[in-house]
Amino acid sequence: MQFIVMGYDGTDEEAIDRRLRAREEHLQVVEKRVAAGEHLYGAAILNDQGKMIGSIMVVDYPSREELDNWLKVEPYVVGEVWQKIEIKPCQVPPIFMK
User: Fold this and answer.
1) How far apart are CA 67 and CA 12, in angstroms?
2) Rounded to whole angstroms, what are the CA distances from 48 to 12, 45, 53?
């Protein structure tokens, strides 16, 4: 089952520092999950000034429970980068899955 995950960073003064501290580990985890076919797409969410304020990911897990298990160990969650997370089921058309 595919999902859109929108993780919004905190707005406090330390928010960007938390993101930068967790970024390398986050990217390593994403690389492994892309190779496993679990993460399909991702992007940083930017504000009008081009500053990173969150992330969006399209993921593919057999169930919501397995997605939740990933979130328990996701560096941006563990490192308190994402302060708000929205998850919606979605379906990526086959043309984008090539």
Assistant:
1) 27
2) 18, 10, 10
Quick one: the chain helix, strand, coil %, rounded to 5?
40, 35, 25
Token couple for 64: 């919501």
For the CA atoms of the chain, what is the radius of gyration? 13
What DSSP element (H or E) covers 52? strand 52-60
Short-list 43, 20, 13, CA closest to 30: 43
> Is 48 strand, coil or helix?
coil
> Could you tell me the mean pLDDT of each successive run of 10 residues in the chain, 98 residues long?
97 93 95 95 94 95 96 96 97 86
C-alpha 8/C-alpha 1 separation (Å) is: 22
Distance CA 8, CA 37 (A): 24
